[in-house]
Write a structure and sequence with these properties.
The chain has 457 residues and is mainly α. It is built from 17 helices and 2 strands. 53% of the residues are buried.
Amino acid sequence: MVLGLGVMIGAGIFSIAGRQAATTAGPGVILSFMIAGIACLLACLCYAELSSTIPASGSAYTFTYVIFGEVWAWIIGWALLLEMLLAAAVVARAWAIYAVQTLTDLGVAVPYPETSQTVLAVLILAVLTGVVALGARIGIRTLWVMVVGKLLAIGAVIVVGFLHFDPANLGDFVVDPRPSTTPPDTVIDVVLGQSADFGWIGVFAAAPAIAFAYLGFDIVATAAEETANAPTAVPKGMIRSLVLATVIYIAVALVMVGMVPYTAIEAQAPLASGFAKVGVSWMVHVINLGAVLGLTTVILVLVVGQTRVIFSMGRDGLLPRGLARISRRYHTPTRTTLILGLVTILLAVFAPVLSLEELVVMGTLYAFMFVAAGVIVMRRTMPDLPRGFTVPLSPWLPACSLLATLWLMVNLKVITWASFGLWMAFGLLVYLVYGRRHSLLAPGRAARAPGRGRHRR
């Protein structure tokens, strides 16, 4: 649960509700959170079944390997690599922005703010990479402290916000639609040739952006090999953390649209400006502190997740086998952690990661599709495998998860689809040049990775 809450509740909890309410959905943003939560819960149930059946590092990559084979597993692993590396770099840059803002609000002079943000982004990535490399136990203890801290900050936001709640601010819960002021740029908008804000269209259009806030529960499955009683504990951790995160997000959204009318929300700093409008300006310090703690835990869990996926791919021979080496001293894939930490730092410094946020969503949703399909296929091809958790009403709920994921994907921008296609094409080239020839399943290679051959047979 702490892994799930650590990655799902970040700085977005203080901004996404107000931003979507002001620009897309109005007070109906609360319904948008419910819709996004249901879509992610369907995917979470599918992850829970597969992780209870195949409790191994690698999450969707490992599931796909067992169910669909090596080529599809490589594709999913490559998508997860994009998701986690880019997400860690994006969140580190956002963390640095909030850290500088927090210091400034406290009266601390920060020289050369933009340079300072870059330095802080590098610093937080280096520190958290070191924490993970030194051992998962240290990382989990650190995570516990920070998750408790940010939950206390969120609790303060909810309690103080409800003290200034005015039902009149909800007005017409679903406001009248109006033509969008931006040209169509998502796949569905381009297909339909138009776009609109607010109304029921706005409520549903806000859901894909909000779904970004819930992403991350899947990373819990990457720690399955390091979890006691994984077939039971991992599914419970994923489902409970997602449900709790959904409740918390909805509570914050209700506070946001209840304190001030949606027309008066400032999209750049919605909660901070909302508290300022009701005369509680000191809450900005609580929000900044909560954002810094929230983003810190997100980075920490992402570092853990990406190392476990690459560890699994290295163990299978699809990437250099040295990436699957466990440190005898720290009992973690220390070398892999340090290499990925360096790559993430380079991305955070040299790539325009803040403008590539949607690629993180695309990579995650792509994996969601295969996991939902995997539940359906595995029920037919491997019906006798013991399962610690089963998706109810299968195959109908997994099919609903598949459709919901596709709907979220077509609400992403056309440029995101194009960029993702280029990344996947490059990944396929890497597989053909290296992965296929070095795979443990390549012709003439009889070896099997420890603990994995039984799944493939």
